[in-house]
Write a structure and sequence with these properties.
- The complex is a heterodimer of chains A (607) and B (287).
- Chain A contains 16 helices and 20 strands.
- With 607 residues, chain A is α/β, with parallel strands linked by helices.
- In chain A, the strands form 5 sheets. In chain A, strands 1, 2, 6, 7, 8, 9 and 16 form a 7-stranded mixed β-sheet that branches.
- In chain A, a hairpin with a 2-residue loop joins strand 7 and strand 8.
- In chain A, helix 9 packs across helix 10.
- The longest helix of chain A is centred in the last third of the chain and has 25 residues.
- Chain B is an alpha+beta fold.
- Chain B contains 12 helices and 7 strands.
- In chain B, a hairpin with a 2-residue loop joins strand 6 and strand 7.
- In chain B, helix 5 packs antiparallel against helix 8 and helix 8 packs across helix 11.
- The termini of chain B are far apart.
- The chains are: A alpha/beta (607), B alpha+beta (287).
- At the A-B interface, helix 3, helix 4, helix 7, helix 10 and helix 13 of A face helix 1, helix 2, helix 3, helix 4 and helix 5 of B.
- Bound molecules: flavin-adenine dinucleotide (FAD), iron/sulfur cluster (2 copies) and FE2/S2 (inorganic) cluster.
Chain lengths: 607, 287
């Protein structure tokens, strides 16, 4: 093995968002030697961008809330494809995880009697999201970051893991490059936690940053673990649509939670037009009731703008397709209308939604206290991820764990807003705890030197490729083509024939990706890094497409135009993908174990 | 259901609001159509290219369109003609504080700097922050900041207020620290502060970002630590002469000087130089 910088840890956590930080903290608490790796600077992960809040049944604002209602809401939102054990643990443990953050220094907004305030969000029956204005993610990541740093955890910033290294059937470590200098690093570790976030960069309209190239998904898959639920990609209903350069940037659901309404070009509040059967009894049937709900009236039902994201995204698509959209291909989201209901509305809006106010003012030159916003669906979150055990978060590959957006199970077919931040805390902690336990119980692993050398050779190939004039292609072109193709062919509305075309497209792009060449040297070279991301993007794109083809029905985030209805035959299994011996992708249906009776009863009680 | 839903229970206010939505939406559209009328304009960017050993401005031309920000132009240049141009970014919405640079000589977040606020008849210069060593192109080595934070005494809460282990705080008390906690760690304030930028006192002065951090801890309603000694010694608060440059560049509009630094300076003075005033304050607070 050539001479690489080597680090030894008991537990290596890949990813320093909420899930990774929480995992690292927990593993370190148990005495393990913990290493933490992240692609960006510390504190810049996606978690920093989360706005609306963290879901936890603290019952501070409405005492009818409880873990049982949270559990039932999560299962209904996920169309019962959720790992119910995870949904149970999540609902039960989230309140403690949020209170713990306060003990570590987080400062949440308060109720009049001084407790943590909670706000309304889509799919949650009662106000449940603890928040800090609309910068909850920043509060969370900063608190965790500072706590982890104070604990003395080793952080390797701007360092990207490109391969997991196995020793026979077990995990032995990871191979990475540092962004600064482009040098390779080898991490020896008995247990690894993947907390790498999502895959949104596989699409062209997305709220996700350059980091979201599905690295953890792809690393796990290549190492032999199973991925699950990959067909379920969440399109958040409200991304910015104008000006073009901000297309896709998120507009928090908090806007609707505070009373924002969706209106088409005819001025019609179209969300009242089509309320799904399973939510009808919980949804207001007139505007007055909806307004009373967002004002905290406990006898009122929630407005249809607070239905689940999949439903709203499709309703918006329908308005746009049928010619009732806004000038730039979205619809209107209006919070300014509350001026007619409330004195000091502009100040109220600025206080409750400060960063939205700021974002529209600066990027679109729009004052949201006086004018509506134009919004449309944007790729936002992936429910699918590494298949894990509900209690321990261990994948199907011993020693490899996953948590947060990189793991699957909790959200089923559709995630409720706010359930991601709580997911990170609950399962980040569990992954850290069990990974440390696993590491303590196993012997040190051995890194096979030839594997490392092979990985290094592959990583450097884009530099060596012949650049014979104009035929040499850079990585950005391949990335753009893939993003446009996925957006068109495997987006919000899906059809068999289009997805077949996408599979051909992916195969063709794989050849192009294998031939891209990069210029410059290894130091902080984004072209090179993009070239290395391509394989991951292609793997997750293929996984999404194949899983979506397998699920011949519409459910949650997946809408198949050729199978527009929910099919009970698809209600009892998850779809997984694994890598076959020859590198082919194997799609399987894995039955969901029957729900425990006590949990079944909770679901019934909350129908 | 359709027609009735709209009519049933539409309060006068809500009905009127829906109508206004469309009117002002059309206004917005008209405004953007006006500006989007012409064909794409070209603009020139002088981007600093180089590394720790040195470098120079290189000139790039690219097309600009409605609503673009500096970061868009940099990305376009990267995709078109400089694949290896190094730049940091994550959120593109002013939330992560990654894309700090100096645009036409001013410390800015590139993702929040709109091109139509700049004079595009002149070349736009984009260069890395000056107070930190260059890694490559627009990327600087800001690791010093992460080291500084480790030296600050950590949050230590008082015992919980309620038997269930929770605390009670009034919104009016948390408002003050929430202002400081908005910090996105872009380090633009560090970049502009002359103590760091011109005098390179990185060993003796923690800089405005971390004075804000200390203020957030000191004024945290639950915190029980006292960091006043270090402020004066290890943190070098005395170097700050309140020129307010830091406040002017903060993209989060944190009133760094008036709300964080000056009150901290007062604490230092109270505790160290004027025992009598300190006593009076203590007495007042007790009341
Ligand atoms: C704009 C926006 C708003 C949102 N608002 C909310 C909200 O209000 N409530 C809510 O619950 N959810 C919200 N979400 C979703 C939520 O923020 C994310 O799902 C969540 O933060 C993911 O956290 P994570 O810890 O799994 O991953 P992240 O926070 O994304 O962290 C991933 C980490 O992995 C690292 N990484 C990735 N690949 C590699 C690699 N190969 N090598 C090394 N490191 C790697 C990255 O550098 C990063 O540190 C929002 C998301 C967005 C984009
Ligand atoms: S006010 Fe103080 S901290 Fe701010 S820039 Fe001036 S000297 Fe630096
Ligand atoms: S205080 Fe303001 S300028 Fe300084 S780092 Fe924080 S956000 Fe940036
Ligand atoms: S990219 Fe996040 S602040 Fe500019």
């Amino acid at each position: 093995m050539a001479d690489y910088e080597t680090h030894a840890h008991d537990v290596l956590v890949v990813g320093a968002g909420g899930a990774g930080l929480r995992a690292a903290i927990e593993a370190a608490k148990s005495g393990a030697r913990v290493g933490l790796v992240c692609k960006s600077l510390l504190g810049k992960a996606h978690t920093v961008m989360a706005e609306g809040g963290v879901a936890a049944a603290l019952s501070n604002v409405d005492d009818r809330d409880s873990w049982r209602v949270h559990f039932a809401d999560t299962m209904r939102g996920g169309q019962y494809l959720n790992n119910w054990r995870m949904a149970e643990l999540h609902a039960k443990e989230a309140p403690d995880r949020v209170r713990e953050l306060e003990a570590w220094g987080a400062v949440f907004d308060r109720t009049p009697d001084g407790r943590i305030l909670q706000r309304n969000f889509g799919g949650h029956k009662y106000p449940r999201l603890a928040h800090v204005g609309d910068r909850t993610g920043l509060e969370m990541i900063r608190t965790l970051q500072d706590y982890a740093v104070q604990m003395g955890i080793d952080v390797h910033m701007e360092c990207t893991v490109v391969d997991l290294i196995r020793d026979g059937e077990r995990i032995a470590g990871a191979f990475a490059y540092d962004r600064d200098r482009g040098r390779f690093k080898v991490f020896e570790s008995r247990a690894i936690v993947l907390a790498t976030g999502g895959i949104g960069r596989a699409y062209s309209v997305t709220s996700n940053s350059w980091e979201y190239t599905g690295d953890g998904h792809s690393l796990a898959y290549r190492a032999g673990a199973a991925l699950q639920d990959m067909e379920f990609v969440q399109f958040h209903p409200t991304g910015m649509v104008w000006p073009p350069s901000v297309k896709g940037i998120l507009v928090t659901e908090g806007v609707r939670g505070e009373g924002g309404i969706l209106v088409n070009r005819e001025g019609r509040r179209f969300m009242f037009d089509d309320i799904p059967e399973n939510y009808r009894s919980q949804t207001a049937d007139n505007e007055e009731e909806g307004w009373r709900y967002v004002q905290g009236d406990k006898s009122a039902r929630r407005p249809p703008e607070l239905l689940t994201r999949d439903h709203i995204a499709r309703a918006i698509m329908r308005e746009v397709r049928e010619g009732r959209g806004s000038p730039h291909g979205g619809v209107f989201l209006d919070i300014s209308w509350i001026s007619s209901k409330m004195r000091n509305a502009p100040d109220h809006i600025k206080k409750k939604l400060p960063s939205m106010y700021h974002q529209f003012k600066q990027l679109a030159d729009i004052d949201i206290t006086a004018e509506p916003m134009e919004v449309g669906p944007t790729t936002h979150y992936v429910m699918g991820g590494v298949r894990v055990d509900g209690d321990s978060q261990m994948s199907t590959l011993p020693g490899l764990f996953a948590a947060g957006e990189a793991a699957a199970g909790l959200h089923g077919a559709n995630r409720l807003g706010g359930n991601s931040l709580s997911d990170l805390l609950v399962f980040g902690m569990r992954a850290g705890e069990y990974a440390a336990k696993y590491a303590a119980e196993t012997s040190p692993a051995r890194i096979p030197p030839d594997e490392v050398d092979a990985a290094a050779k592959v990583a450097l190939e884009p530099f060596g490729r012949a650049t014979n004039g104009s035929s040499a292609e850079g990585p950005y072109q391949v990335q753009d083509t893939l993003q446009d193709m996925m957006q068109d062919l495997v987006g919000i509305v899906r059809r068999q024939e289009e997805m077949q075309r996408a599979l051909d497209g992916i195969a063709a792009l794989r050849l192009r990706a294998a031939a891209v060449s990069v210029t410059g040297n290894r130091e902080y070279n984004p072209g090179w890094h993009t070239a290395l991301d391509l394989e991951n993007l292609l793997i997750v794109s293929e996984a999404v497409t194949r899983s979506a083809l397998e699920r011949q029905e519409s459910r949650g985030a997946q809408f198949r135009e050729d199978y527009p209805d929910k099919d009970p035959a698809y209600a009892n299994f998850n779809i997984t993908v694994t890598r076959g011996r020859k590198g082919e992708m194997i799609v399987s249906r894995v039955p969901i174990p029957p729900m425990r009776d006590d949990l079944k009863q909770i679901v019934e009680e909350n129908k | 259901m359709t027609a009735t839903a709209r009519v049933a229970g539409v309060g006068a206010g809500a009905g009127a609001a829906s109508h206004d939505v469309v009117k002002s939406g059309q206004r917005a559209a008209a405004r953007s159509d006006q500006s989007a009328g012409g064909e794409a304009k070209r603009a020139t960017f002088h981007v600093w290219r180089g590394d720790g050993a040195g470098g120079e401005f290189k000139s790039y031309e690219t097309s600009v369109s409605e609503g673009m920000v500096v970061l868009d132009a940099i990305h376009q240049i990267q995709a078109e003609s400089a694949n290896d141009l190094a730049v940091r970014w994550n959120c593109k919405a002013g939330k992560c504080g990654s894309c700090s640079a100096e645009v036409n000589g001013m410390p800015k977040l590139m993702c929040m700097t709109r091109l139509n606020d700049l004079d595009l008849d002149e070349p736009v210069t984009v260069e890395p922050m000056h107070a930190f060593p260059v890694v490559r192109d627009l990327v600087t080595d800001v690791s010093w900041n992460f080291e500084v934070k480790k030296r600050i005494r950590k949050f230590t809460p008082r015992a919980p207020d309620a038997p269930d282990g929770t605390w009670r705080m009034a919104q009016s008390d948390v408002d003050r620290v929430q202002e400081f906690r908005k910090c996105v760690e872009c380090f633009l304030c560090q970049d502009v502060c002359h103590v760091l930028r011109d005098h390179q006192k990185h060993d003796e002065f923690i800089g405005p970002r971390f004075l804000v951090h200390v203020a957030a801890l000191e004024m945290h309603p639950l915190d029980t630590e006292n960091r006043v000694d270090e402020l004066r010694t290890a943190h070098g608060i005395g170097y700050c002469n309140i020129t307010k440059c830091c406040t002017r560049v903060c993209p989060e509009n944190i009133t760094i000087t008036d709300n964080a630094i000056i009150p901290l300076k007062e604490r230092v003075v109270d505790q160290h130089y004027d025992p009598l005033r300190g006593l009076v304050r203590l007495f007042r607070r007790g009341k």
